[in-house]
Design a protein that fits this description.
The chain is built from 17 helices and 14 strands. It is α/β, with parallel strands linked by helices. It binds nicotinamide-adenine-dinucleotide.
């Protein structure tokens, strides 16, 4: 397909949580560019062309519809689109490696490297290659080596443009980002390439929010941003454990410290733990890099952020078992929410996976409900499916249950008729609020035994 009427052909390889929304926003904001998103997964590509998008993200369908069929296209023809493109974003997945050296820590770059080889094999003209995936610092160097290894005379400029969107708020994050970060080599060519990428975002992002730097700083900044965000969660969660022992209230502590402008009030909600495909993977990646450079103390420091998260998940399960008289065998337990956070159907690394598995191990009868994530939940737990019921209605899920555990902070769970739910439950009825979203006094007054995070439990015995 020739795209002569457009002044730039942009291709994105990888049509997932990052590639899809990012490219939809670029296309919607820049009608002068032709934007194609390509993926090896044909089912996903098909879904992007319907109103039943492959991911749930508030406001996304509207943005996609604005541009789809005009200057936003979805395709499985990766090679053909590489040939036609001037700029290629690469947003393939970079999961934690599960095999060989660095297993459980470093990023698995096989999908990444494959795209580099696809590009070099079929490209017939110079291109700007943009790392959109989150990658270990200095990956651009390896990318350059692969791209220029064949001496074809074609030149590729590798740019790092990490994505900072958060799932659940991806559309507003993309429309109004805190910053866009673009890193390049500090050469004449590098600077020219960076100007071209700045030009894309400048169509809707104020210039002072587009920051440019060297490629290594850009790559590293993404890992560090996620490490700091996760660290805040682990920090407040570690204190929640202390609160539960001392009758202090984590919400009051968070409020008090958050009013210090040096600390700030965001990201101080204690919970059952963080999830999502990125935090754990990116921290472990950082840990691996530190170890690689012999910075063992630094590695250990960051690894503890993950350790505290695992501790928090485990603590939650142990609290449930302990509260329910040290046995949950044959007890029906309803998990309210399975997504790793509200407003997404994504369940990758969700604490609910860990909790559900542990409850099944203890022979509980687990019922899972979630407004958007049931399909993914079934997939995540397919090996233990026979012990789990998936139920879209929270009232039915809680019917006959001994306990409810709130796993995701969905708005719908804040306003349910808990009196009605209580009536249908076994007694004594327990409620474990893994996200601290309910009015615990009110829930207690209904008759529940309530176990928040980082606050004293409210029990009737
Ligand atoms: N999900 C997030 O919130 C988020 C935010 C910022 C950055 N990131 C980073 O962005 C990257 C992508 O994350 P994601 O959540 O979009 O992943 P994803 O798994 O949702 O999407 C990746 C897509 O790439 C495709 N793919 C893999 N190899 C391919 C190949 N060789 N050719 C064509 N397509 C290929 C897969 O089929 C998949 O659809 C990761 O590095 C991640 O760390 C993610």
């Amino acid at each position: 397909m020739s795209h002569k009427k457009f002044n730039k052909n942009i291709l994105c390889i990888g049509a997932g949580y990052v590639g899809g929304p990012t490219m939809a926003m670029i296309a919607a904001k820049c009608p002068q560019y032709n934007v194609t998103v390509a993926d090896i997964n044909s089912q996903k590509i098909m879904a992007w062309q319907t109103d039943n998008l492959p991911i749930y993200e508030p406001g996304l369908l509207e943005v996609v519809k604005k541009a789809r069929g005009k200057n936003l296209f979805f395709s499985t023809d990766i090679e053909g689109n590489i040939k036609e493109s001037d700029i290629i974003f690469v947003s393939v997945n970079t999961p934690t490696k599960t095999y060989g050296k660095g297993a459980g820590k470093t990023a698995d770059l096989q999908f990444w490297e494959k795209t580099a080889r696809d590009i070099v094999r079929v490209a017939e003209s110079d291109k700007i290659i943009i790392e959109k995936s989150t990658l270990p610092v200095r990956t651009a160097e390896a990318m350059e080596r692969i791209l220029h290894g064949k001496n074809t005379g074609i030149h590729f400029d590798v740019i790092s443009n990490p994505e900072f969107l958060a799932e659940g708020t991806a559309v507003s994050d993309l429309e109004n980002p805190d910053r866009v970060l673009i890193g390049s080599r500090e050469t004449e060519r590098g600077r020219k390439a960076i100007r071209e990428v700045v030009e894309i975002y400048a169509n809707w992002v104020p210039r002072d929010r587009i920051i440019t730097c060297d490629v290594w700083s850009a790559e590293l900044s993404k890992l560090v941003a996620n490490a700091f965000l996760a660290q805040r969660i682990s920090s407040i969660n570690s204190i929640s454990a202390l609160c539960e022992r001392t009758e202090a209230d984590i919400k009051k502590v968070a409020h008090a410290i958050g009013m210090d402008s040096r600390i700030g009030s965001k990201f101080l909600n204690a919970s059952v733990g963080f999830g999502g495909s990125c935090f754990r993977k990116d921290i472990l990646n950082l840990v691996y890099i530190c170890e690689h450079y012999g910075l063992h103390e630094v590695a250990q420091y960051w690894e503890n952020v993950v350790t505290i998260n695992e501790y928090q998940e485990e603590r939650f399960v142990q609290k449930m078992i302990h509260a329910m008289f040290n046995t949950i065998a044959q007890k029906r337990i309803a998990l309210f929410g399975f997504a790793f956070k509200a407003n997404t159907g994504d369940t990758r690394e969700s604490p609910a996976i860990y909790v559900a598995r542990k409850l099944v191990e203890e022979r509980a009868l687990v019922v899972i409900t979630d407004p958007e994530a049931l399909q993914n939940a079934e997939q995540d737990l397919k090996d233990v499916r026979q012990n789990i019921v998936f139920e879209s209605d929270p009232f039915t899920a809680a019917q006959g249950a001994h306990a409810i555990a709130i796993m995701t902070e969905w708005d719908v769970y804040k306003t349910l008729d808990y009196k009605k739910i209580f009536e249908g439950m076994e007694k004594p009825a327990f409620l474990f609020d893994g996200r601290n979203i309910l009015d615990h006094q009110e829930i207690y007054k209904i008759g529940f035994n309530v176990y928040p995070i980082g606050k004293p439990a409210l029990t009737h015995f």
